[in-house]
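Fresh eyes needed here. Have a critical look at this protein's tokenised backbone.
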Amino acid sequence: MTPGSGLPFYGWAIVLVGALVSFSSGPGQSFVFSIFLDSIIEDTGLSRTNVSFLYAVGTGVSALMVMTVSRIADRTGPRLTLIAVSAVFGFVCFGMAFAVGTVSFFIAFAALRAFGQGSLPINSTLLVASWFVERRGRAMAVVGLGFAASNAILPPVSQFLISSIGWREAYMVLGVMVWVLVLPGAIFLVRNTPEEVGLHPDNRDRPPENEPTPAQVKGQPDKRRVFTSPTFWMLALPLATPSFVSTALIFHQVSIFDEQGLSAAIAASVFVPYAVTSASSSMAGGFIVDRVGPKFLFYLTMIALLTATLLALIIASPVMAIVYALFLGVQGGFQRIVSNTTWAHFYGRHNLGRIQGSAMMVGITSAAVGPLPVAYLQEQTSSYTVPILAMAALPILASIVITFARPKPYGEADSSDS
């Protein structure tokens, strides 16, 4: 494991655990919960509107929770928070199985989103960001494959479990899955930093240049501001744009396709090329980031997002629907790498949780809000043309704003914040 020993760098064991963490976040993600939705409604008598409202509120709780967990990770290390969050998340899945009334479902939904959607994945992001600098993009891409695999595998597995043993028992199985896949690696393999085992990031023989060592950080206050920093928002808002726009498009996809004369079956089928393209572009994005940095990849992400958004106006055939899905998948894969590498790239790997978690909170909130303006404008105009054109302006605006963002490294305050 030491440089020059011929053994694989131990950081790749951290990446493997990170990929399993990403996979195991599935029970708290929308693509798995949607499989349970009809069964929950049928069993409990709750209306679709009530369940959707409770789930939306749970998403808001998730946005706040991820910021809290990430700041705790800065103090205790992401290893301990990963163990705690994954252990609780397994129990939350069991809690879903025993929820019966509105109050208990609200608590279960909020906990499911809070621990699964953001709090679990943020720890793998912080760990990998600490172990890799020069190869951070490639490492994050491998972690992202776990999420892509979860998207492809867990929905059909969940449907099989629901049909075989019932939706409540299915959630219990998913809870056990979280424990089995995450806890052993988190307990026995994960270390917070390479320095804890006598290594340096990327298995180099010296610390990264232009970055303090962990020993130096302990005695150096972090002067970087977050929510009061204009620089933070000049990164956070552009980085949240893909979540805002793509969530709105996917949320209203069946209706958008229907307006163009395409069936709901076609709208559902395009998720296959979307998932494949998202996974492959994520790997490509990792290599791009390592060579030229995250800003260039962000511009490519915005080009793909703008193209997909404009294509949504002219989808008139299954072939066009596939092309639309391919561009949407490219932006999804690229965006996953951009959001996981940008903050460490500009701010460094020390005390990253308070910054990365705050940014993730902004992204989750934007995803929750994104479908609302599209729905409102569609109701006002009886068409998706105006809302989609409005959405198309956002990638252009985001590209302009992020160009002028100049974050300061650890230990330095933004001049605008002084």
About this structure: The chain has a mean pLDDT of 85. Residues 230-417 form a domain with the Growth Hormone; Chain: A; fold (CATH 1.20.1250.20). The chain is about 75% helix and 0% strand. The CA atoms of residues 130 and 349 lie 5 Å apart.
